[in-house]
Amino acid sequence: MADSYTDDLRLAHSLADNADSITMSRFRAADLQVRSKPDMTHVTEADTAAEESIRATLSRARPRDAVHGEEMADTGWGPRRWVIDPIDGTANYVRGVPVWATLIALMEGPEVVAGVVSAPALGRRWWASKGSGSYAGKSLHQAKPIHVSDVGEVSDASLSYSEVGEWIDSGSGQGFVDLLRDCWRTRAYGDFWSYVLLAEGTVDIAAEPDLALHDMAACAIVVTEAGGRFTNLAGEDGPVGPGALATNGKLHDELLKRLGSPAAEQGGDPTES
Length: 273
What we know:
Elements: H1 6-26, E1 34-36, E2 42-44, H2 45-61, E3 66-69, E4 80-88, H3 90-95, E5 101-108, E6 111-119, E7 124-129, E8 134-139, E9 142-146, E10 158-160, H4 164-170, H5 173-182, E11 185-187, H6 191-200, E12 205-208, H7 213-225, E13 229-231, E14 244-247, H8 252-259, H9 262-265
Helix pairs in contact: 1-2, 4-5, 6-7
């Protein structure tokens, strides 16, 4: 791994260890406390406790870094910012489905430089740091490098998504339905799962029309360091919306034409933020 981010990535794994202990201790608990947020999504006591644990450790280990999380107010200011989603896939968590993960990323300015996706109920993690490739396994010491697929045609591609209804509401519903028809295989793996499967080369396209920074940051670097491309629907590289489109790279331009916003169709510079 790149020397400049070795300590940060190790810290992210340690943060994930603590979060895993908290989330697994309450997973499928009969007395799990769940409430609805103003946007009508779920939040559990485990979401809050995991984010509190991560923030407490960062306040000691990286006191000069800013923190952005899903459940609590932003803290700090500066070029280095940790981005946290304590449980990505809370709806699965609440229903006892084991497909959920803690997402931890470090950004320097607009760029993600390190990220860990930890899915303890699946017994797996995925991680990456800038210039060092992407890996999957149970820990830093039990890992294998991963890489995106070599599929070059939509008709041969496997697509993963979250909810068809979100695409219909986004105004790109017809384009998405046409894509579903044209792909070789489609499955709604959803959430982080779509993007790590893409990084492993078992899915070729992953797309969602409405995501927040904490949903995307850790997944973005895992995809790009695995050789893929991660942009918003306007074609801008990185984890800032509108929405997200991740591919193995070879399929990306065609997918932007099919699903992208008018800015992408007009040929906007994908490196602009």
